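hey so i finaly got around to running the thing on ER membrane protein complex subunit 10 from Trichomonascus ciferrii. pasting the sequence first so u can double check i didnt mess up the copy paste, my clipboard has been acting weird all day
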Amino acid sequence: MVVKLLIAFTILLQIAFADNLKVLIQPLGSTETILRGVISYDPEDVGDVTYERTKQTVSGKACVGIELSGKDFKCMALGNLNNTASDKIVVYLNKDNSVRNLDYSVDDTDNVQVIRRDAKGPVPGMKEPIKLVDNEVPQEEPPKTFIQKYWMYIVPVVLMLMVSGGADPNQQR
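ok and heres what it spat out for the 3d tokens, dont ask me to read them lol
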């Protein structure tokens, strides 16, 4: 008896915290939206996904999307629907478990995935900021002059000119 109550309670919790997402289609050139199916998933465990497809059939090019709050339709993909084909749907969720994007394609069997936004990767260790003494703000270095920047290249050239000397004074006459 207790086991049955526990199982019933866990099922009720799953249903209570599950999100239902209505997948709608809108044939091109039409303003009417048709229910394609309902995706049920648990935002905490996106591996537990069910998809119930309706019996209504539509063929041809159509816009596939979801129902937002109320009766608003948000088109997220264009697809070439076929009466005999099955749906492959991938739903991407934001951090707040709202739908960010929906990918739709035709497949051999119904296949639905719900992908939650990945957590951020590790943050690299950065240098610690300089601790200020007496709350002084560090001053920026003034820009260096040409000689200050390139003295190590200029000095060898000047030394070579000094050591090499001039022309022989006897040959100039």
